[in-house]
Amino acid sequence: MHSSLLLAAAVCLTACSAAPATGNHNFVLHEKRDGTPHQWTKRTRAHPAEVLPVRIGLTQSNLHKAEEYILDVSDPESENFGKHWSAEKIANTFAPSKKTQDGVVDWLVKSGIDVGRHQYSTGRNWLEINATVAETEGLFNTEYHYYEHDISGGHRIACDEYHLPQSVREHIDFAMPTIQLEGMRPMPNIMPQNTAVAPFTGLTGLANCARLYTVECLRALYQFGPGNTTAESNAMGIAEFADFLYLPDLATFFKNFTTQPIPADTVPQFISIDGGQTANASYDQAEGAGVESALDFQTSYGIIYPQKLRLYQVGDGVNMDSVGTFNIFLDALDESYCSYLGGDAPYVDPAYPDPNEGGYTGPLQCGGAPLSNVLSFSYNQIEAALPVSYQTRQCHEWMKMGLQGVSVLFASGDSGVANRYNSGYENSCLTAPDVGPYVDSNGTRFSPSFPTNCPWITAVGGTMLKGGLNATIHDGEQAVGQPDATDPKNDFYSGGGFSNVFELPRYQSKAVSRYLTEYPPPYTSDIFNNSGKARAYPDVSAIGIKLPTVWLGEGLAVGGTSASTPIVASIVTLLNEARIAKGKGPIGFLNPTMYAHPEAFNDITVGGNPGCGSDGFACQPGWDPVTGLGSPNYPKLEEIFLRLP
């Protein structure tokens, strides 16, 4: 399950280049797209009378203290470890100042947008107006065009750059719709050993682990026991966007591939978000759609049962044209997230009601969904294809989840140091920073992923057993690698690298500095961010190949870092279970404790993650940008986490 994306089409949306300054405003450049958009073609100017839902992201208070706040509750050396914040405290701490709100309102009024047209989001973090293209071009000193997607034919309205008056620029993070064009999509990595369920049943026992990594193999490899409780407070959450879960497959999986009896009628708690649904027998799951969800839930049930699972199914996945849908998920968890710090951004998030055929027609869901202690995601996007402002605001959202005691895990990607854009497995790399287009399938610069680049999530890479098909768990692990000599587009390697957006967090500084000093990669700064000051990923790894999965009644061997991610997330759920049994709270943000205890991981020193015409990075002793700290050793992790308050 590749954590990759398709540049999806939405309803008639757009893009911009500079227009003459208007009024008495002293405009300065606020944001500009890097290079020519990949797979998008600029068409005609947008009609001046067309109405745009303009959203202005107000600068938040206290975000300069984000690292201080999150480490205060997650650093094992902090006296406040585990003292997580309430949603109310988070909303109050980061709310925009009155000066910011008043400054932006004054600018809008002087520009002809009277107060009666203003609306604030919950938490007053977004100021919303509906304005014509002509009005918006005047506000942002820009020009809007229609853009057409080269593959889907869908259209958007956007601009190449936009400007703000110097007097209000400090009060605005970014505005939409402006330069945003990109979307996301998971891509299944189904191994060639596809077959009926029955032949797989012979691949049991620890001698066959390299051929099929059953729960029995994972349990022996990482030394964790079965789940013991069904604590409602510890239900693990898995979010799905493009894939719908076909429930009858669960019973077949339980019968063939679990080590303890699981009742055939066991299903996850279903949390429908903006029209999310499960699949039925008539649902068209062509090209592997649905495999992602099947892999995630079957793997997790095999590890944590009888602990419960939650399926957060975000709607509109059937259209495959949602972008920014992590925000739609965040909206549903807590009302304070709606239109809040990256939520509900038009032309990045889907519109509600959805104007697409068969789209969700109800209102945006705000709040009401239960919050899980552990959240697992097998989706990601291309860092270079998204505005920095958007990534920054959403990264702060994940930080706030950690402040509330939630462990957020994302797959690191399946293309090594590259990325994948679409279902054709087109690798996307980058050109040199100042030479467009920035995202380029023929580029040689490494292409990091989002949100794995965010320092407040745990990024999970992939491993496999050393020694080929006859390997056993006693042979140890190496970085996952599956080259395809017949079609390099199908190559599969653990995603990893160094962000060009986010700085190196304190908890990771020692490990990353050691790697760059003792094992410097043989590349210059025009290939990757070798400054030693960049957020690096992945953080940890786990088996990411040949996991048994039942999909539409068929047995598959499925891999990808989106196989690794639910494994690690399930192990964290077991750790929380052990803490709860001792009267303690959930772990929350994992990374500070993990980096403080590298001895709790199986170090991976073999393998690499090639891409972009290079060998990528190489596994080395200690942390590396292929497998992170390594794979989990459950007994050591449990001992460490049970000692913490």
UniProtKB/TrEMBL annotation:
Cross-referenced Pfam families: Pro-kuma_activ (PF09286)
Coiled coil: none
EC annotation from Swiss-Prot or TrEMBL: 3.4.14.10
Organism (species): Lachnellula occidentalis
Cofactors that this protein relies on: Ca(2+)
Cofactor note: Binds 1 Ca(2+) ion per subunit.
Organism lineage string: Eukaryota, Fungi, Dikarya, Ascomycota, Pezizomycotina
Active site, per annotation: E292, D296, S562
Positions with a binding annotation for Ca(2+): D603, I604, G622, D624
Origin superkingdom: Eukaryota
Function according to Swiss-Prot or TrEMBL: Secreted tripeptidyl-peptidase which degrades proteins at acidic pHs and is involved in virulence.
Cellular-component GO terms for this entry: extracellular region
Protein known as: tripeptidyl-peptidase II
